[in-house]
Write a structure and sequence with these properties.
- The complex is a heterotrimer of chains A (388), B (240) and C (392).
- Chain A is of the alpha+beta class.
- Chain A has eleven helices and 14 strands.
- Chain A has helices spanning 4-13, 15-47, 72-79, 124-127, 194-200, 220-228, 240-284, 286-295, 299-327, 352-378, 383-387, and strands spanning 54-59, 70-71, 94-105, 112-120, 132-136, 145-149, 164-168, 171-180, 189-193, 206-207, 209-213, 235-239, 332-336, 343-347.
- In chain A, the strands form three sheets. In chain A, strands 1, 3, 4, 5, 6, 7, 8, 9, 11 and 12 form a ten-stranded mixed beta sheet that branches.
- In chain A, a hairpin with a 2-residue loop joins strand 7 (164-168) and strand 8.
- The longest helix of chain A has 45 residues, at 240-284.
- With 240 residues, chain B is an alpha/beta fold.
- Chain B is built from eight helices and ten strands.
- Chain B is 34% helix and 25% strand.
- Chain B has a six-stranded mixed beta sheet. In chain B, strands 2-1-4-5 form a four-stranded antiparallel beta sheet, with helices on one face.
- Chain C has two domains: 3-46 and 254-389, no CATH class; 53-215, no CATH class.
- Classes of the chains: A alpha+beta (388), B alpha/beta (240), C alpha+beta (392).
- Chains in contact: A-B, A-C.
- At the A-C interface, helix 2, strand 3, strand 4, strand 7 and helix 7 of A face helix 2, helix 8 and helix 9 of C.
């Protein structure tokens, strides 16, 4: 009932204190938002590589492409399963790929790290229409030419247009093109010819995984049943979105957990800061409060007014924190993905959920921190006003 | 007594007996400071008629401010009954007293007690926030109150931009904007220079004579006390 | 009563505010210690890596195997390397618990005869070790892992294979302890032969890496060169690194994250300074008139500054000490234990390093002083008469 302008102006008058407290809250919100954005960015990058109507087939029991192996002749059986979409020539949209992890020297002096090399068949671009060649040209089939994802370009020695990398001794690959994959994790990979790559690593006759496109997402169950029918084949089918989610879950959860546990500590600190500020406000305005009580404003009204002031203060800080976190969106990071043990490049990603959580955190700090001081304000007796 | 009553008397009419607006019977107020007991008021009786302008005087510690607080419903008696404007204050709880104050009492404080972040108009508007009036009506009434005290042209100034005397006049505007029956003033001229004090006292007199407000004023200032019709003296918690 | 005493006595003036500020500083110190301890614990694997151990694997990728016969160039069958005391081959198995699938632990198949010669920091009672060597499907399990899954010697346990699919049965033959707490106590080790004989013919005879123990760590570089040179002309080349280098490389993959945590630990210190600075400034504003009185009495501006800084220092140190007192039970014994047990592979050793405690205490004093600088300057610049006129 006391107009909000009273609170806003009171906050503005004590500029330094208000700023310091809001900044404290802002820092906490920033840290939490950054952690969530990191975790979301990781998952988003992986999820962007998938489609609703695609499914991936791995060997049964494997927890990822790296630990999976499927014989060439099985590919035919999978392609013939019900629900697999056919292209205009009547060919089933199913491709087998081989996945390898190769050690290379990083460009920034960290030493050696792992890069994911994917051996892809000729029809890979047909299968993944979101992939576009940015510079150079596609690799010629059957040669040692490779193309490099935009994200990983330049992060490792020789991983640039025109460069040459060593897949293994005496097997050199030339980088002829750079591809864009819509911001997905494929942009952290190097793609080469399926047969050349697996031959280089002695993996003839088998692929790591098979991806298919289905006529519609609903067809998955039928497809899955057919593929997993024969126990001797020992296959498992997973819808591609779920597979990608599981691949990033471990790392993403790890990051979120760190972010949240750190935030718990920090928010206690910021809350104490808010409490100190509000106690200060109450004590310096006790005669104002006395007047309001004398005029007939109820204790509850006064309590709510100060609580509101604390809330405004902390929400202002939360806004600062989110805006600062937004600036992080421009940053590109690379991290070792636990599942594939290779480097993955991704960005911070802000979702509306993160903004909501940040706002709630800010509000929570404001309400919890401001509650006791607001109670004290409500207890001011009107006679204080007389004493001025 | 009011001008009306005086006129009636001169005209020979018998004035009907109007009950006093303030009736205190046997009131005591005891304070405890740790184990120490302070009887600030002791078995006091007091009647103030409607439309009166009375001054309470006495040395510090005499209990005059305490008495004022009790009449205004800011404090509760330890013993006795106190009936103000038809309400038995000792029977009312905090919430009821708050509501009663917002409708019945107007305050004028020694230290003005304006809210520094609100403009003059907004300060005067404050008591009206406790009514059901809409925003426009509130602003209109506040402007009128400011006009009465002669500060309409300063309505958008902050208290820091006003002189002491002007601040107190805003305080007076605030004390009448909700049309209360009683105005309670605690050392209203205590912080003012002679000229401003006179302006304030003129206003109070006008409120009493033209608008019929009952005014109870605590003061040290003999010039202020002279403006009242009745002067009462308190010493050690008793009326002398 | 000296000046500093007076400053410290000021602390008692507004107890609630002082208490809150101390609590705020303590929380900040707690968070700081937690972060630095976490970072140190994570990177400690590299710091504590055995200086005398090397690891030889496929040059290009850790996924590709080495032929098993390479061990013959280490154990004397076809040759030896000078300076190498013991060698053992191993393969990453990568299985998981059939029920608690998300509990990560390292498991591999090893050369039974020599493995524990190369890893003497994994301590197995001699009889248990002998028994394990005799038991084809036996497994040596880390103390922490046994505790987590409730395994005892003699239990038959099953693991779900991922790289090598299917359900694998083992018998717990022995439980190992470690000399230093820095070594992972949740590993699972079994016979390579057991794995090999269960594989189809084309997949047999392959190993992941060869671990060696050298007698003189200072000669590691020469030995590394010798090993890799030996296999240079073979079909599969090797890359040999010290265990420390391997760990460091692994951590480098997370350098972005570690750097972020470094930044965050600075952020918490900033928050702490904001809280302290705010409180001190509020106090100064309230006591303006008193400073005026003191100056009228003859105190000089630098005395006033000392009051302010002294008070800040007192509060800062109190908070720092409180934070540290809480840090040990909460972080080391509370969270630390949980992390060691549940994420032992990453945080085998979660202890607050002594230098972190000292730094935390020092920082609380230093930052308190810095936070007090501006308010102290403002207070010391007060004009006595102005201050006396101001109404608090």
């Amino acid at each position: 009932m006391i107009p909000i302008s009273y609170n806003l102006r009171s906050l503005r008058v004590r500029t330094a204190t208000t700023l310091a407290t809001a900044l404290g809250v802002g820092l906490v919100v920033f840290v939490l938002a950054a952690a969530l954005m990191l975790s979301d960015g990781l998952q988003r990058t992986l999820n962007l590589g998938g489609s609703d109507d695609a499914a991936i087939v791995l060997r049964k029991g494997a927890d990822g492409e790296l630990s999976s192996s499927i014989e060439d002749n099985v590919l035919g059986i999978i392609s013939a399963a019900p629900g697999v979409r056919k292209n205009q020539q009547g060919q089933p949209l199913a491709i087998g790929e081989v996945v390898m992890v190769v050690q290379m020297w990083t460009q920034d002096g960290r030493g050696q790290s792992n890069v994911l090399v994917r051996g892809v068949p000729e029809r890979v671009l047909e299968f993944r229409p979101q992939v576009k060649i940015l510079e150079g040209r596609p690799a010629k089939v059957g040669t040692t030419e490779v193309i490099v994802g935009r994200g990983i370009l330049g992060r490792f020695e020789n991983l640039e247009l025109g460069g040459e990398i060593e897949l293994r001794k005496n097997v050199r690959a030339q980088v002829v093109g750079v591809f864009d994959a819509g911001g997905s994790s494929y942009e952290s990979e190097v793609w080469g010819d399926l047969f050349v790559v697996r031959d280089a690593f002695g993996r003839d006759g088998a692929v790591s995984s098979v991806r298919v496109r289905l006529d519609s997402p609903e067809q998955f169950e039928g497809f899955e049943a057919a593929v997993e029918l024969d126990p001797r084949l020992a296959l498992q089918a997973i819808p591609e979105p779920r597979f990608l989610k599981e691949q990033s879950q471990g790392t993403a959860d790890f990051i979120s957990a760190i972010g949240i546990s750190v935030t718990v500590f920090f928010s206690i600190g910021a809350m104490i800061g808010a409490m100190i500020t509000m106690y200060g406000a109450v004590s310096s305005r006790s005669s104002e409060v006395g007047v309001l009580r004398a005029l007939g404003f109820s204790r509850l009204t006064i309590l709510l007014s100060f609580l509101l002031e604390s809330l405004l203060l902390s929400l202002a800080g939360a806004v600062l924190g989110v805006v600062a976190a937004l600036a992080l969106s421009a940053v590109e990071l690379s991290i070792l993905n636990f599942q594939t043990f290779s480097e993955m490049v991704f960005r911070f990603h802000l979702t509306s959920e993160t903004v909501l959580v940040a706002a709630l955190l800010g509000a929570g700090m404001g309400i919890l921190g401001g509650f006791l001081p607001a109670v004290r304000a409500a207890r001011v007796s009107p006679i204080e006003a007389m004493r001025g | 007594m009011t001008q009306e009553q005086a006129a009636d008397e001169t005209a020979g009419k018998a004035t009907p007996a109007v009950p006093p607006i303030i009736e205190c019977r046997g009131i005591s107020r005891t304070f405890w400071r740790g184990k120490e007991r302070l009887d600030v008021l002791d078995d006091l009786d007091l009647e103030i008629p409607t439309g009166a302008f009375e001054a309470l005087m006495g040395p510090s510690g005499s209990g005059k401010s305490t008495l004022l607080n009790l009449i205004a419903g800011l404090d509760r008696v330890t013993r006795g009954t106190i009936k103000v404007a038809g309400h038995q204050l000792e029977r009312m709880n905090d919430a009821a007293l708050a509501k009663w104050r917002s409708q019945t009492v107007g305050f004028v404080f020694q230290h003005f007690n304006l809210i520094p972040v609100l403009t003059a108009l907004e300060n005067v508007e404050l008591p009206l926030l406790l009514t059901r009036l809409g925003a426009r009506e509130r602003k209109e009434r506040a402007a009128i109150a400011l006009r009465v005290v002669g500060l309409e042209d300063r309505m958008h100034h902050l208290p820091t931009q006003l002189s002491g005397g002007q601040e107190q006049r805003v305080g007076i505007a605030r004390s009448i904007v909700h049309d209360p029956k009683i105005i309670v003033a605690d050392e209203p001229t205590g912080e003012l220079d002679r000229q401003s004090a006179d302006d304030v006292l003129n206003l109070l007199q006008r409120l009493n004579e033209e608008f019929g407000k009952t005014i109870v004023m605590v003061t040290h200032d003999p010039a202020a006390a002279e403006r009242a019709q009745v002067q009462r003296k308190l010493d050690k918690g008793r009326l002398t | 009563m000296r000046l500093l005493d007076l400053a410290v006595k000021n602390v008692r003036r507004n107890r609630l505010r002082t208490a809150l500020t101390v609590a705020g500083v303590a929380t900040a110190i707690l968070a700081f210690v937690f972060l630095r301890t976490g970072i140190t614990a994570w990177t400690s694997a590299a710091d504590n890596a055995a200086a005398d151990r090397l690891s030889t694997s496929h040059r290009v990728t850790f996924i590709m195997p080495l032929p098993k016969r390479y061990i013959e160039y280490f154990d004397g069958t076809r040759g030896r390397f000078e300076g190498v005391d013991a060698a053992a081959y191993a393969v990453w198995f990568g299985a998981r618990h059939p029920v608690q699938t998300d509990q990560f632990f390292a498991n591999f198949a090893v050369q039974a005869e020599t493995f524990f010669d190369v890893y003497p920091d994994m301590i197995v009672p001699p009889q248990d070790l002998a028994r394990w060597k005799e038991t084809r499907r036996g497994a040596v399990v880390g103390q922490a892992l046994a505790q987590k899954f409730g395994w005892k010697i003699g239990d038959i346990v099953r693991l779900e294979g991922t790289i090598y699919p299917g359900e694998w049965e083992f018998e717990v033959s022995a439980i190992y302890e470690t000399k230093t707490r820095a070594v992972d106590r949740s590993q699972f080790v079994f016979h390579w032969d057991y794995l090999n004989e269960s594989l189809p013919e084309p997949q047999r005879g392959q190993i992941g890496w060869i671990a060696t123990r050298v007698s003189d760590p200072t000669r590691s570089a020469a030995i590394i060169t010798a090993i890799d040179a030996k296999f240079e002309g073979f079909d599969v080349q090797t890359r040999t690194v010290t265990e420390k280098a391997a760990q460091t490389q692994f951590l480098a993959g997370f350098s972005a994250l570690l750097r972020a945590l470094d930044v965050v630990s600075v952020v918490i210190l900033l928050i702490m300074m904001l809280i302290l600075g705010n409180t001190i400034a509020m106090g100064v504003r309230e006591r303006t008139r008193e400073y005026g009185v003191l100056m009228a009495l003859g105190f000089r501006p630098h005395h006033i500054a000392v009051f302010v800084v002294g008070e800040a220092l007192a509060v800062g140190l109190l908070g720092g000490v409180l934070g540290l007192m809480l840090a040990y039970p909460i972080i080391q014994y509370g969270m630390g234990r949980w992390l060691e047990e549940n994420m032992g592979a990453f945080f085998p050793y979660f202890r607050i390093p002594p230098h972190v405690s000292l730094v935390a205490l020092g920082l609380s004093a230093l930052l308190a002083t810095i936070a007090a600088v501006l308010p102290a300057l403002a207070a010391s610049r007060l004009n006595a008469t102005e201050a006396l006129r101001r109404l608090g």
